[in-house]
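User: I'm putting together notes for a lab meeting next week and I want to include a structural view of one of the chains we've been expressing. I don't have a solved structure, so I'd like a prediction I can at least talk through. The sequence is below, exactly as it appears in our construct file.
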Amino acid sequence: MRGFHVVFMLFAVGCAPVCPPGLERAASVDLYFGRGGVSDADWRDFVDRSVVPRFPDGMTVFDAGGSWRDPRTGRTSSEDSKVLRLIVPDARVAAPATLAIIDEYKRRFAQQSVLRVEQPVCHAF
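Assistant: Thanks for the context. Below is the predicted structure for the 125-residue chain, given as structure tokens.
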């Protein structure tokens, strides 16, 4: 069991980037939202009311297209999507706000899921 802890710690340390001078460590949090039935106006309202208050320092939104398999029916469908990228000092600290955004989107637009991806990055403003 001790070997597992050593390997885990080496893996965890290996995930943190060594940032060059002038850049600081941060986390990139990407949220992937399916747009099935969500109008442009509804999306903008969602961002203005649900995302901006939680992340007033800013974010980036990308238009995307994707496909997803419904676990209930086994069918794969394609739809327009939005990717919301947040650069935050610590993904663990930001998790309650990102999870609240995900929960609100699923509830408000009757979506089954929102994909969340987190990775370490180096950044500077």
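A couple of points you could mention at the meeting. Confidence is low (pLDDT under 50) at residues 1-13. The two ends are 43 Å apart (CA to CA).

User: Perfect, that's what I needed.
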